[in-house]
Amino acid sequence: MRRAVFCTALALALAGLLHTDKSPARVAEAKQDERPTLNVIAAGINSRGTGIFADTGVVRERGKTFRIELSADFPGESRLNRNLRGVVQYAFDSGDDPPDVKVVRVSGPDDPALRSIVQEIARTPHATVNIDMDLMMFGAEYWRDQTEKLARVAAVVAEERLEQTPDSSNSIFTHSAATVGLSKLIESGKGSLYEHKVAASPMTWQLSSDVLIVQAAGDLPSTPTGDEKDIQLLNSASRNRDGWLNRGNTVVRVSGRGFDVQPSAIYESLAERAQRVLTGGNVVGAVREAVNQVKAHSAAATLGVRDVRVEVSVPFSAQHEPGEPPSPQRVERFELSNVSSGQVIKVLNGDGGPSVQTPDTRRTNWDEFKDEVKKLEPPKGGGIALRAVAELPFAADEVAGAVWDDGAGRVVLNGRDGSEVWRLPRMNPD
Questions:
Q1: How does pLDDT run across 389-423, given as a tens digit for each residue?
Q2: Which sign, positive or negative, has the C-alpha torsion 213, 217, 222, 226?
Q3: pLDDT band at 264 (very low <50, low <70, confident <90, very high)
Q4: Which of 351, 368, 362, 359 is nearest to 328 (CA)?
Q5: Whole-prediction pTM
Q6: Using CA atoms, how far apart are residues 383 and 327, in angstroms rounded to an integer?
Q7: Is residue 263 classed as helix, strand or coil in its secondary structure?
Q8: Virtual CA dihedral for 148, 150, 154, 155, nearest 10 degrees?
Q9: How far is 424 from 135, CA to CA, in rounded Å?
């Protein structure tokens, strides 16, 4: 038990370090939606959500982009601690926002600066809004402040949106600590403002059955408060798939690589050095276990990478007359390879997924849904699978050439101004 707690604490301390915003084999953006769309995204601790920003287009049209940065200024807090949060977030998540993103920093939902950007979001046909919590590491007080602000700001954005654009299809995607904000949005009675709700690596069980759950094998355990003593090593919301299925939630579970594992070499190298300095190997095992948990934690929110194995589990119960008790639940489950979780979520949201509330409709659409998802999987039997060819998120005319980085074992694509545009995964030079 002590080892598990130590590994968990170490992993949570590293959370955000291994976010890889330029992941390999991303899929193309979704085609334009007929209805106006609003996508709200929110990442967890030590993250600015740049990777989720980039991946949103896999599920729905991204459109015009906005960033609402929340501040967590507490009376008596030292200036050093306040500035450290921003430094840590940028250090752990140094990815780039989409071009021309509009940014505003607010103290909360009552900040006058929020009003103008909310009105602009409401008028934009297709909009993606990143609500960026000012959250670093543990701290129940900070988690409570930021997740409550997240819930209220998300409600304000959606309410104004539906008032000005009543036919808007609203979705909210939350990861890690931000799932606590989603739970507070639902508890406040405002969950219905969002037609589609997704919780990746959920930190809390307090989510309604219409929330799509995304988990990753080997993920960090959950903590609903941000307090170390509340870490749930057993019956963890981020790990327990059957617990969600029993509650009626659809679960998408990813496993395999699913992300660029190169940063782990840094920590493995540190661990090996520690092993030489120390007599035992426990430190090495703890560090590696922590790194693997953090990588899995990031993978749960990586929607646009195809090199993963995806398992889809959907709970069903037979239709009954009103007032009759529900029948025993059954679960339909199948697996896919080389399909991104974002592609699966896109199909789920349109065909028999968590947004469809009646069991009868889900049951009617199940075969159609399964067929649609299976189409995303590359053909078996070897050869060149054209459906699995990577589509990188930049235009071909942005690339001036490619060079081989012998030290990193990667092909590097350079732009016309000489800057690095993309790094392919590590490969054998032969």
A1: 555 666 777 888 888 888 778 888 888 888 887 77
A2: negative
A3: very low
A4: 359
A5: 0.73
A6: 46
A7: coil
A8: 10
A9: 31
